[in-house]
Amino acid sequence: MKTIVAKTEKSFDSARTLPIAFRKKQLSALLNFFENEENALCDALYTDMRRPYFESKIFEIEGGKREIRHILKNLDNWIDVHNNEKNITNNCKDVFFITSEPYGVVLLIGTWNYPLMTILMPLAGAIAGGNCVVIKPSEVAEATSSVISRLLPKYIDNDCYPVITGGPKETTELLQNRFDYIFYTGSSQVGKIIYEAASKYLTPVTLELGGKSPVYVDKTANLKLTAKRILWGKGQNCGQVCIAPDYVLCTPEVQAKLLGFMEDAIKEFYNGSVKTSKDFGRIINQRHFDRLLKLLKNQNIAIGGHTDAAERFISPTILIDVRPEDPIMQEEIFGPLLPIINVRNAQEAIDFINAREKPLALYLFTNDGNVKKDFMERTSSGGMVINDTIMHIVADGLPFGGVGNSGIGAYKGKYTFDTFVHKKSVLSKSFNPLQEKIESVKYPPMTPASAKFIVDVAKSNIVISTRYLTHALMFALGVAVTVSSYYINKKLNEK
Length: 495
Hints:
Layout: H1 2-13, H2 20-36, H3 38-49, H4 53-79, E1 82-83, E2 86-87, E3 95-102, E4 105-109, H5 117-128, E5 132-136, H6 142-151, H7 168-175, E6 181-185, H8 188-199, E7 205-208, E8 213-217, H9 223-235, E9 245-250, H10 252-269, H11 286-296, E10 300-303, E11 307-308, E12 313-314, E13 317-320, E14 337-342, H12 346-354, E15 361-365, H13 369-378, E16 383-386, E17 400-401, E18 407-408, E19 410-411, H14 414-419, E20 421-428, H15 433-439, H16 448-460, E21 463-464, H17 469-494
Parallel strand pairs: 4-5, 4-6, 6-7, 8-9, 8-15, 9-14, 13-14, 15-16
Antiparallel strand pairs: 1-3, 2-21, 3-20, 7-18, 10-13, 11-12, 17-19
Helix pairs in contact: 2-4, 2-5, 3-4, 3-6, 4-5, 9-10
């Protein structure tokens, strides 16, 4: 591990990742990887989770290609040096700007439920930022990890972007090395371990974690569409999605109507047989299957509940009469189980949500404007969707990330680029004699008059556009002459 990391550091120190042409070449190669290896990637995802082909293609393959194209289209603009406006405390001949500086060597650790998206989309942003990246796919999605480690090095620079496989042992060894940035997607429990390791060197991190994403449904919602949209979000990847609806809050009256529509939706989605449907996946491994079965114990099953250990199959399952203290409410479910908890109104739902860790996503189904306003203002979550689920992950222009226990930082599009660069402030001054004369008031010995002048100028907070430097210079010169004349006349009068 040390040898690989040291080699990657040497690559970054050589400045080979800094030219924009190099970055674009690597991004184009990454795009080719998605395009050329689509079948191998979808086959691997099917092997790991029996993920439906179209689901892998839409969410991971096409989603990844779209992200890379967006970066390639906008990279020149993002990487441009940005001049800032200045106020009167800065001389008009000063030049100052913000430049996007790569952090250096990034450690990128992906997770198993979306093993392509959680590795390759952040990788694209890190490459665009000019970094080197040590890539660690999740060992849990074994087939996908194998494809990434075997095929990706054929497309991108191995010295700058090495792929390391393995499990917790290898990850632990990696974390013993010093990195310039760490990007991790996975559970909150492991996220805390990553954060602790990063703290040794005060390494900045992005932690894309999870949590129990709540849904609140009130009587003003279109309950038929609500049922379909909740179950569509819950059914993606067999519920193994960090932003999947985790539990539903509603009144008993809404629950009674919602259950009927949910039953109809499941029949419609899977042609009356979930198990034989090509549109429904399987649980990733036996450990997670057994964990979900334990959560089902002693629960009142309203819909579904069918399981098959040989296939690691669990049907979409709706639970009612669930208590807040039940085991299923103590952890992120990460499977096709959906508890319903009854509340009396929106206020009680808000209190219920706020009494728990901040979720990665919050879903609200209502046509009541006041309820929308209350949830937006009085709850905190990584993201929020009104009258749908999980669609914010594909919405252009929206950052994706958590808050509190659900994560630190965000990415997608320009937010991915910004994640992997340090915004470095640069101020450049000249030795111009006139500029020096104007600014000499800052030097000691400080007099009451010079101190007052500095304070008065600072208080004015006049903003000067960098587009009008000549005008600004004349203005500054006028101020200096006026002030100087004032103090000269004052001294002459005193004599």
